[in-house]
Write a structure and sequence with these properties.
28 strands; five-stranded mixed beta sheet; globular; single chain; mainly beta; four-stranded antiparallel beta sheet
């Protein structure tokens, strides 16, 4: 690995955005994905929970949130692959004073389907939007005023809006996931929101199938079939084929139905990847490092382990710690709480350790330049 201060896009085809508990790193490679250069740490000593790439307008802008115990949570961007970053003096994403809320964390940054549109999911659970490519932000009042909001309870990571799914076929439709609130959908650009949890269990509640209150860990959507959603729950795997109107369980042979991350294959809407965790330790079950893949939309799951240690490997991958690139064949990647980045250049058939020794990894986002 060659350490650099920034990425040279002329020499790169694939880019990994890696957030950690002590800064951000950029990993870049040619299309072969044989060798990776490393840039960073950016924002050393700060927690980076979310990163995103915006390739619109040919700007190739990278976004990152950072949280510091003294300076709070800030939103940064770079248009030169990490050579320079914006360094705001105050948080551009902030609650209006009249709400009585203060920003604790930016859990998700998402690029919208309309020009200039962007979203941030934050803690305490709320959604912010920008119509000018991140220059200014406003609270999505329709979700903030939802009658369920006062009854949402924090999950293990806090009361966070951690997943934002933009529908590429309908600019007015958006799904979000909240721990613990479940899945909500808007069909009118955020003015109104409907709960979309029918069929998702909440095993820790007296009512196992409540209207809301599920501890959803992650939801994934395929761009070519936006009505199909895959969901990793706090106990249970689910699929929807009607944009969340209904869900059915698809555990079907996975070693554990508990986990956090989920990634879609970039070209096949029937193929998805998960990293199951043992419920109590919340590490890879039996100390065996395995990714599970379905090729039939959850009808069955196959463990993928070639290249992974198969004993005494107790790894944890967080909800944003797995992603896929769109090259041929697709690359699949994940990062662990022990600071390791693993990758596959053949859609999960074989794996190798790309980088070790990083701080605890919070997010991994794959980009094709």
């Amino acid at each position: 690995m060659e350490a650099k201060t920034f990425v040279n896009p002329k020499n790169s085809a694939a880019l990994l955005l890696v957030g950690t508990m002590k800064g951000a790193f950029l990993l870049s490679s040619e299309a072969s994905r044989e060798r990776w250069d490393v840039s960073g740490p950016h924002f050393p000593g700060r927690v980076v929970y979310s990163m995103a790439y915006d390739g619109r307008d040919r700007r190739q802008r990278i976004w990152a949130s950072s949280t510091h115990f003294a300076f709070g949570t800030l939103l940064h961007s770079t248009e030169d692959f990490g050579r320079t970053w914006t360094n705001p003096e105050s948080a551009p994403v902030k609650f209006p004073e009249e709400t009585g809320q203060s920003l604790r964390q930016i859990w998700q940054i998402a690029v919208g389907s309309e020009q200039g549109k962007m979203y941030c999911g934050v803690e305490p659970a709320a959604l912010f939007e920008s119509n000018d490519a991140g220059q200014s932000w406003s609270l999505v009042q329709g979700l903030f005023d939802h009658p369920h909001r006062s009854q949402w309870q924090p999950g293990g990571g806090g009361l966070c809006l951690h997943t934002i799914l933009v529908d590429p076929s309908n600019a007015k439709r958006l799904h979000v996931a909240i721990s613990t609130g479940g899945v909500y959908r808007t069909d009118d650009g955020g003015k109104s929101w409907q709960v979309r949890n029918q069929g998702i269990s909440a095993e820790f509640l007296p009512d196992k199938y409540p209207e809301f209150g599920q501890c959803v860990h992650k939801v994934a959507r395929h761009p070519s079939r936006p009505e199909r959603l895959f969901l990793q729950n706090h106990g249970g795997l689910f699929r929807s084929d009607d944009a969340g109107d209904s869900w059915h369980e698809i555990v079907n042979g996975v070693s554990s139905d508990f986990g956090f991350p989920m990634a879609m294959h970039p070209h096949d809407p029937d193929t998805a990847y998960i990293f199951p965790l043992e419920r109590e330790m919340r590490c890879s079950p039996d100390g065996r490092l395995r990714v599970y893949r379905t090729r039939d939309a959850g009808g069955s799951w196959q463990p993928l382990s070639t290249g992974f240690p198969q004993e005494a490997s107790y790894e944890t991958v967080l909800r944003d710690g797995m992603d896929a690139d769109s090259l041929q064949p697709a690359g699949i990647y994940f990062g662990t709480r022990s600071g390791k980045v693993y990758g596959s250049r053949d859609e999960g058939e074989t794996w190798r350790l790309i980088l070790a020794g990083l701080p605890a990894i919070t997010c991994v986002k794959a980009v094709v330049l």
